[in-house]
Specification:
With about 400 residues, the protein is an alpha/beta fold. It contains 13 helices and 15 strands. Ligand T4K binds next to helix 3 and helix 4.
Length: about 400
């Protein structure tokens, strides 16, 4: 048998076409086109129409929450959620997240305070957060990174002890359950993203869930400029509305999301079989008592054990047409907008820096075949075996 030459060393790539980190799951055209046609025929395209209301009710039931307000995307939803809390001062959050989390705090006129993450779950470390609580702290904004639940019990205790609001960024966590309860039922508010790259999507979209009727009503008003009626506008609202066309897509995607979770679960299990135990690779530690949604499959590369650092593995996979992603490097605390803040100092965020330099999200979505997963795992093992040669090779 002739040995395959790695693409990064001049061989042919393993995949003829790029294999992306994710693909949006789409319903059959027969399922979605009639819904879109209904919207167009109705000539009611946005502003709290029938389809948005239908999707919100379906989501409320699927997510097992008291109230669900849809939004045009999760970034505006985060912004509105922070406004709805009617707070001032500092918000403790994680630097290991997508920029939207921290930008929303800043756009809401609040001050982000970065807190280190747990070295195993990669979520906000509740004990480190406790040490950052001060007189100006108003809220906690943890992120269920890659859909893996935060330590919801410890964070609830911390919030209650200091009278802090607790807002979760649940952008990745559609359908997840922690300790038997739906993820969107923890904390005061939870924000979901329905971007095309998410498990459940409306192309662009998001939602905020809560058990509080008062917060829900504020959110509904905030997303519609603060308009109460034709004569009254209350507060500083924004345009955060989801359109009827996006909602129609969501209604159809919701029908197939459980199948997508099942398919991703099979593929994630196969990755685990192939990669758990490979020296130099670790997997995110799942929080106990969790029903996961398998939205991401992430490895962390220890350069000593693996023989190569994460960036070289990423480049070598890219050459094979395997498009892995370094979510979330750079850390939000490294952004020039925030890096001079005292809490952004790298010495205060050792775990976040260590993890961000090592993680790699591998392709995971329902259209990948198990053979694709095998080929990606094989490529990783081949790259590892060729580490001595690759260390001398310039980074692509
Ligand atoms: N909080 C957290 C923790 C988040 O992760 C995010 C967003 C937010 C808040 C804010 O949510 P939104 O305001 O976006 O609702 C993507 C997404 O744009 C972003 O929504 C997401 N997190 C983030 C983790 O990933 P990029 O810049 O990596 O996306 P992009 O365009 O490189 O897409 C990734 C891959 O997905 C592509 O290589 C191919 C595939 N793809 C993408 C799109 C857009 C498709 O197959 N079809 C598509 O339409 O940010």
């Amino acid at each position: 048998m002739t040995e395959r030459r790695l693409a990064v060393l001049g061989g042919a790539p393993r995949f003829a076409d790029p294999v992306y980190v994710t693909r949006p799951r789409l319903p059959d055209e027969e399922a979605v086109l009639p819904l879109l046609a209904n919207v167009l025929r109705s000539r009611w395209l946005t502003n709290d129409g029938e389809m948005v209301r239908r999707l919100e009710e379906l989501l409320r039931l699927r997510l097992g929450v008291g109230f669900c307000a849809s939004f045009c995307n999760a970034t505006v939803a985060l912004l509105a959620a922070l406004r709805a809390l009617e707070i001032e001062g500092e918000v403790i959050t994680t630097p290991f997240t997508f920029p939207a989390t921290v930008h929303a705090i800043e756009w809401a006129g609040l001050e982000p305070v970065f807190c280190d993450i747990d070295p195993h779950t990669w979520n906000l470390d509740a004990r480190a957060a406790a040490e950052l609580v001060g007189a100006r702290t108003a809220a906690l904004l943890p992120v269920h990174v890659y859909g893996n639940p935060c330590d919801v019990h410890a964070l609830r205790t911390l919030a209650e002890r200091h009278g802090l609001a607790l807002l979760y960024d649940a952008a990745h966590a559609f359908g997840v359950r922690a300790h038997g309860a739906p993820i969107g039922s923890w904390g005061d508010l939870s924000v979901f993203s329905f971007h095309a790259t998410k498990l459940f999507h409306t192309a662009e979209g998001g939602a905020v869930t809560t058990a509080s009727d008062v917060l829900h009503q504020r959110l509904r008003s905030l997303r519609n400029f603060g308009i109460v009626d034709e004569e009254t506008v209350r507060g500083v609202g924004i345009n955060g509305k989801m359109s009827e066309l996006h909602a129609a897509l969501g209604v159809a995607v919701l029908e197939i999301v459980d199948d997508e979770i099942r398919r991703r679960g099979e593929r994630a299990a196969h990755y685990r079989e192939r990669l758990a135990g490979v020296e130099g690779l670790t997997l995110q530690a799942l929080a106990p008592d969790t029903t996961p949604n398998h939205s991401y499959f992430v490895i962390a590369v220890d350069p000593d054990g693996f023989g190569l650092d994460r960036d070289r593995l990423h480049a070598a996979l890219r050459a094979e047409n395997i498009v892995s992603r370094k979510y979330f490097q750079p850390l939000c605390s490294e952004n020039e907008a925030y890096r001079e803040r005292p809490s952004a100092a790298p010495a205060r965020l050792p775990n976040a820096h260590r993890v961000a330099a090592r993680v790699l999200c591998l392709p995971l979505h329902g259209e990948l075949t198990l053979d694709d997963v095998d080929a990606i795992a094989d490529a990783i093992l081949e790259i590892r075996a060729a580490a001595p040669a690759l260390r001398r090779h310039p980074l692509a």
